[in-house]
């Protein structure tokens, strides 16, 4: 393929984490894809919410969402470095979609020149295929202690020399100070490319902000390109900052089924986006290990970055006993690491917890899991529902979609989805390796029909918003609130 080497670029940085960079890039990818062939890009992402590409590579979920918004397939080049925190100041480093090593922060930064090379290679490959690369920074752009080793903000800005838009979050307070301060702290060779500010998550009349916007522009000589409203979007959350803001139950329930689902908030929880489709149709609570579990209709043990450590924490807190008391009273689901915990035993050769040992599980499923090698299974799959029982009987034989991201292998006497998963004799304790399970409407509906019938309440089927509709809704908000003429000018001026 001819290498065009002339792809235009736009870089979206933020004043802090969770200010809305990912959502804004998603909206821009949708809007700009009408004119250009667009690729998203984030040099380095730190997130436990990940996605598996068609060729089995693991990337941050945000870049997968952005690619789909742009109408292209996600690839590893769109997020060449993914850091998945494991605890104890250690992260698993995923490079170009493959496990690279477990490293502490200090050891990781020792290899930063190698990561710069990975960044450049990924950008070159994207440049050869796309007209425009919409790039995203990470955390706050003005982390002055990291300037000499930062590849995702300063590094990306210097390598690409792209025009920069800086996003600030007014909901957290201090937005004018954070925008002004970030600009002043940026290195001169980076700040010269700062071409616009965006204020996000505003509640109220934007006219109230006008005096402040003008003063900010006068002080910095940088225009404010728009003010985005606070809005509830049907798009998966990016990272751990989002789960910290999850409510322990809905405070405002409008036309929602009277079903209580408790998701165990494991210390090393991963891919909690698995359960966001359920938040639209049930009261989903995220329960800490030292919280009261109550009497939910359904309990879900989610995925985890370290199954053994979270199992031990589950047991030491007594949460395991509280879950086991609900057998025959509630549906119990285990996803990925949660599935492994539901079994009788976990054999660890030292991959998970550093020492060879056997660990007793919750014993709710007749399964055994073994961690034998440092090898991760990452694959998208389609499976047929093969399980019987009160939840799955009327959808047996139907197809579902999901993706696997796990170490370890599990033996089971009876599967649920093709050759995956396990189910107990009652049909109400279910384990599976499939992330994205509840994105399947047939699974959501089967679960809700069973739970509502058992509870004796009416089932109100959800009004489904397709993924494409959600991207269009976001694009309308972004397009109506930002100076898109100016943004096109920044792009075309390269």
Automatic annotation (TrEMBL):
PROSITE patterns xrefs: GATASE_COBBQ, GATASE_TYPE_1
Gene that encodes it: cobQ
The protein's annotated pathway: Cofactor biosynthesis; adenosylcobalamin biosynthesis
GO aspect biological process, one term: cobalamin biosynthetic process
Keyword annotations from UniProtKB, A to Z: Cobalamin biosynthesis, Glutamine amidotransferase, Ligase
Family: Belongs to the CobB/CobQ family. CobQ subfamily.
GO molecular function list: ABC-type vitamin B12 transporter activity; ligase activity
PANTHER family documented for this protein: COBYRIC ACID SYNTHASE (PTHR21343:SF1), DETHIOBIOTIN SYNTHETASE (PTHR21343)
Domain CobB/CobQ-like glutamine amidotransferase, residue spans: 260-442
NCBIfam families linked to this entry: cobQ, PRK00784.1
InterPro entries, A to Z: Class_I_gatase-like, CobQ/CobB/MinD/ParA_Nub-bd_dom, CobQ_GATase1, CobQ_N, CobQ_synth, GATase_3, P-loop_NTPase
Annotated function: Catalyzes amidations at positions B, D, E, and G on adenosylcobyrinic A,C-diamide. NH(2) groups are provided by glutamine, and one molecule of ATP is hydrogenolyzed for each amidation.
Active site: 336, 435
Domain CobQ/CobB/MinD/ParA nucleotide binding: 11-232
Name the record gives this protein: Probable cobyric acid synthase
């Amino acid at each position: 393929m001819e290498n065009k080497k002339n792809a235009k670029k736009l870089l979206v940085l933020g004043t802090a984490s969770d200010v809305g960079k990912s959502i804004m890039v998603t909206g821009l990818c949708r809007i700009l894809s009408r004119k250009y062939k667009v690729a998203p890009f984030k040099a380095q992402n730190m997130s436990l919410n990940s996605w598996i590409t068609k060729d089995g590579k693991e990337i941050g979920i945000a870049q997968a969402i952005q690619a789909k918004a742009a109408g292209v397939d996600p690839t590893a080049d769109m997020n060449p470095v993914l850091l998945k925190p494991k605890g104890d100041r250690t992260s698993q480093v995923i490079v170009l979609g493959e496990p690279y090593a477990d490293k502490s922060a200090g050891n990781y930064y020792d290899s930063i020149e190698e990561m710069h090379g990975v960044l450049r290679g990924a950008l070159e490959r994207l440049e050869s295929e796309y007209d425009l690369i919409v790039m995203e920074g990470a955390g706050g752009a003005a982390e002055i202690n990291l300037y000499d080793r930062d590849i995702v903000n300063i590094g990306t800005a210097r390598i690409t020399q792209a025009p920069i838009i800086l996003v600030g979050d007014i909901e957290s307070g201090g937005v004018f100070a954070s925008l002004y301060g970030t600009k002043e702290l940026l290195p001169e060779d980076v700040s010269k490319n700062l071409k616009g500010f965006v204020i996000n998550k505003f509640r109220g009349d934007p006219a109230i902000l006008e005096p402040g916007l003008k003063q900010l522009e006068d002080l910095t000589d940088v225009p404010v390109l728009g003010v985005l409203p606070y809005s509830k979007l049907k798009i998966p959350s990016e990272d751990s900052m989002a789960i910290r803001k999850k409510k322990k139950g809905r405070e405002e329930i409008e036309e929602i089924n009277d079903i209580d689902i408790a998701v165990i908030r494991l210390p090393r929880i991963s891919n909690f986006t698995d359960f966001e489709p359920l938040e639209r149709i049930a009261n989903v609570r995220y329960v800490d290990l030292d919280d009261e579990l109550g009497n939910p209709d359904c309990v879900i043990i989610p995925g985890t970055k370290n199954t053994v450590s979270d199992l031990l924490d589950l047991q030491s807190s007594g949460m395991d006993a509280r879950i086991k008391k609900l057998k025959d009273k509630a549906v119990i689901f285990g996803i990925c690491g949660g599935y492994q915990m539901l079994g009788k035993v976990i054999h660890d050769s030292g991959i998970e917890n550093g020492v060879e040992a056997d660990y007793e599980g919750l014993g709710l499923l007749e399964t055994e899991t073994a961690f034998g090698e440092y090898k991760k299974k990452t694959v998208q799959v389609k499976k047929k529902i093969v399980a019987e029982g009160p939840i799955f009987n009327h959808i047996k034989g139907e197809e579902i979609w999901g993706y696997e991201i796990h170490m370890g292998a599990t033996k089971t006497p009876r599967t649920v989805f093709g050759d995956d998963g396990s189910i107990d004799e009652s049909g109400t304790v279910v384990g599976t390796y499939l992330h994205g399970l509840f994105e399947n409407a047939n699974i959501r509906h089967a679960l809700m029909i069973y739970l509502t019938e058992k509870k004796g309440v009416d089932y109100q089927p959800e009004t489904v918003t397709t993924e494409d509709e959600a991207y269009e809704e976001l694009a309308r908000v972004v397009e109506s609130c930002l100076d898109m003429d100016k943004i096109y000018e920044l792009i075309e001026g390269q």
